[in-house]
Amino acid sequence: MSDLNRRDFLISGSAVGAALLAPEASAQTWTGQPEKGAKLRLMRWKRFVAGDEELWLANTKKFTDKYGVEVRVDSESFEDIRPKAAVAANVGSGPDIILGWYDDAHLYPDKLVPLTDVAEYLGKKYGGWYDVCRDYGMRGKEWIGLPIGANGGAMVYRKSHMKAAGFETFPTTTADYLKFAQAMHAKGTPVAHALGHASGDATTWCYWIVWGHGGKMVDKQGNVTINSPETIAALEYCKQLYATFPPGTLSWLDPSNNKAFLDGQISCTNNAISIYYVAKTSPDEKLKAMAEDIEHANWPVGPTGEGTELHQITQGMVFKYTKYPKAAKEYLRFMMEKEQYEPWQTASLGYVMQPLKAYEKSPIWTQEPKAAAFKHGLGKMRHHGYAGQLGYASAGVIADFIVVDMVAEAASGSKTPKEAAERAAARAARYYKV
User: How many helices (H) and strands (E) are present in the chain, helices listed first?
Assistant: First the structure.
């Protein structure tokens, strides 16, 4: 398939706290006003956490009440957001605003309304954006997407099961994590990670494990380097780890590990705080008891000795076909203001990690001790195009699940680690043309 056709196919189918803010930053004002008679349609992800959706809709109503702008909110599954956004960009019709994943905005930057004015206003008022948010939101000096936050990832585990397997604390290195997984498997309380086309849970852990061993998709010049000894070492590790998983993880999507954990089939996975949230707020006494036993930990560090976290960042994108770009930008600005953002974070127990540094002071981070592992996620995150730049190629590679497929093939034994790395490199080369 030619590079042009492949691009067309993808598009068509695919700690500064508030108290530290300078007075002049706190006094930033915004003068944008929606167009008269404006109506908006927003597409966002389907909830995993009830408080997230409930407060988002409540904040949307506040916006409508204030400005008289009707906003229709459509919720879609995690996996459907990306292809539906790409279709909207390609055909020039659809939601005015889409909360997309990762660097989707870089797939069709010319189809988007620049958001530089909104981003600069919010950055000055709320302590600045984390560096990785600038990586994702900007193309050159222009903001093409507005980072809303990230559905943060951490290790979610049952404390009592960990201790029963002989561990007093959660492993801090990947070497010890493998021993932990083997011990948990022997106890009948296994770990498991998604290996299907899950935009969040599969993508984040697969990049983490490859990076932690020193592998990377490209070098600084954009040359494809995924077929390397470091990547193969990561894939050999994944084979050993996969041997401890229960059956079925090759087809797991984002809801799958949540369901398996809450059903007692597994006792450790990577996830946002949504598993804990469901257990804590459930009327089922068994799940409430499980919530007391659930803990979170940061990702173990691999042989490189560096933290290599990736989180499912989401960005607000405003499409040029909208009739009401001012209203769309005003809506995004409104939703990111403290009066809306902090209650939203708190209601969802920190399900969405903040992109603006001032929100490190959000009440949730002191009200809910079990959310601590998520507080600094975007501050520690590296972008998935590492060690190159984000752009069309990186967006295409992650949308095509090249790293996830490579890990799944090697882990399951359908290909050798060397074969899996070679295939990943060949697929990635279709996007990276240096």
Answer: 20, 11
